[in-house]
Design brief:
about 230 residues; mainly alpha; about 0% strand; single chain; Rhomboid-like fold
Amino acid sequence: MSDPFNTSFEPPVNKLPPVVIILFVIMAGIELALTLGSAGFVGGPTAIGWRLQLVRDWGFSGDIFDAMLAQGYWSWENLARLVTYQFIHLSFTHALIAIVLMLALGKMAAEVMGQFAMLALFLLSGIGGALAYALLLNDPVWLVGAYPSVYGLIGGYSFLLWRKLSASGGQQLQAFSLIAMLMGLQLVWSVFTYVGYGWVAELAGFICGFGISFLCAPGEWGRILAKLRQR
């Protein structure tokens, strides 16, 4: 029975790891500024073009990457786009969905794998998604948004579920039901409207996240070393 005289406060939402809060502040802060600017509340008349300018300055372009690859000249400013594009979104709703998914999946990944591992999983999956977008496609459309990174977190979640099912003797293919459902929804949606090729980056982000989890998940390094010693 609960103590009626207990005055300690229990937050309705579990405490978020600091790394997740930092990512939230960056993503939400950028979107808040862009949304207020487009509505005319801040920045004056020129603020309406902030979003487009930010996409051009810090979004990821497959054409720019292809040009660097062809010329063999790798500028730090353009390489930074592999990371910065993950924090720029096309609209408030575009950002909101990504932020909500990042909070839920990022909290899980940080608590199970650790905060540094969660950050690596998020950023490296986004980088992997952008590289796949540039190398596999010839699409002039700019890539922006945290979705490849979020799909990397889904890859981490799928890995943990896959490992749990393996240990319990369950059907390991069940671990991929979430990504299968998401890709299926995109396929269905593409029947009714043009969805572009962002799904290539998202699927690549998932694959990267699943693969990186072999190094980030608790106990995996020990298992890898044990197998190497057996050889």
